[in-house]
Design goal:
14 strands, about 325 residues, about 20% strand, disordered N terminus, 7 helices
Length: about 325
């Protein structure tokens, strides 16, 4: 039992006397192995990236704002090695370069449809474009011809949106881009460390106020979701990746605008008993972690634009508010 107690102490949590100790200890050991065996990416260019020295930080939250069922807690001390991270999400211009070089076809293009927010579909085309809505969240519509080149449907274009984040990219698409670029997707821990900008246990990359001194710092929903977006921050959809000030690490658009894919499989309970050194998430799962929230997030519906917040989607999913950024090992 002494060794088991040491395992729990290493994880930074008290020994959970009411759960199977051996099973949890085994999970901790497995997570250590997965962390040690994690894939590195070192050949990609570091242009447009910032080097973060890593070290220890407090990940997650135990605050009253935490969404318990998402597994935001417990707040725990995590240690990371140094890494590079993109200063901004991958843009339409960058993704176009990738597709030209590789002839890659995204999953949305192969399927010939993707999910689009109802408010962004031209009213005169709604009946002809929308095949169905999603039960229970009818503001999401299955739109024929929507993909990263045509975010709102076949008559839309990203021609004037080169500096906007690419959307309608699945986790699989994002991973393909990363491989081409000699990089990889960030772990959830790396993403959160970067997003915090050196601040500890703050709700946002700049502090605890969403709109400090009345100044908008990110692109999220204002008004009544989903029927009225006042666009007080200047945008009713995606915005250029540098539209708002960066955090103290110099990182842009890491809150709001678009959700960002992470490398980890999602499990709301897994990280309670895992290694605190370079954690990589479960070895398998059904959905991948997404962080950061999007322009559709509002406190009344999806208060997940906080740094500790998390959600997930299946690796083949794509919508008009999901993007990604890359990291590279040092």
């Amino acid at each position: 039992m002494d060794s088991e107690f040491r395992l729990f102490a290493d994880a930074g949590v008290p020994h959970p006397c009411c759960v199977p100790g051996k099973q949890r200890a085994t999970q901790l050991l497995q997570s250590r192995k997965e962390s040690a065996a994690r894939k590195r990416a070192v050949r990609g260019s570091t242009q447009g990236m910032v080097k973060l020295d890593g070290g220890e930080f407090v990940m997650g939250t135990d605050g009253p704002e935490a969404i318990v069922q998402d597994g935001e807690g417990p707040a725990r001390r995590v240690t990371l090695e140094a890494f590079y991270i993109d200063l901004s999400p991958v843009t339409n211009r960058q993704f176009a370069e990738f597709t030209r070089a590789t002839q890659y076809v995204t999953e949305s293009e192969r399927l010939a449809w993707s999910f689009v927010f109802q408010g962004h579909i031209p009213s005169d085309q709604f009946a002809s474009l929308v095949e169905q809505t999603v039960p229970g969240i009818s503001w999401w519509c299955k739109v024929k011809g929507a993909d990263w080149r045509h975010p709102e449907g076949p008559d839309s274009s990203v021609e004037e949106r080169g500096s906007f984040p690419v959307v309608h990219v699945s986790w699989n698409d994002a991973a393909a881009y990363c491989r081409w670029a000699g990089k990889r997707l960030p772990t959830e821990a790396e993403w959160e460390y970067a997003a915090r900008g050196g601040l500890e246990q703050r709700q946002y990359p700049w502090g605890d106020e969403l709109v400090p001194e009345g100044k908008h710092r990110c692109n999220v929903w204002q008004g009544e979701f989903p029927v009225l977006d006042l666009a007080e921050d200047g945008y009713a959809g995606t915005s250029p990746v540098d539209a708002f000030a960066p955090n103290d690490h110099g990182i842009y658009s890491i809150t709001g605008n678009t959700w960002e894919w992470c490398a980890d499989w999602f499990d709301a309970n897994y990280h309670v008993m895992t290694t605190r050194n370079n954690p990589v998430g479960p070895g398998q799962g059904n959905a991948k972690v997404m962080k950061g929230g999007s322009y559709l997030c509002h406190a009344s519906y999806c208060n997940r634009y906080r740094v500790a917040a998390r959600t997930a989607n299946t690796p083949d999913s794509a919508t008009t508010n999901i993007g990604f950024r890359c990291v590279r090992d040092v």
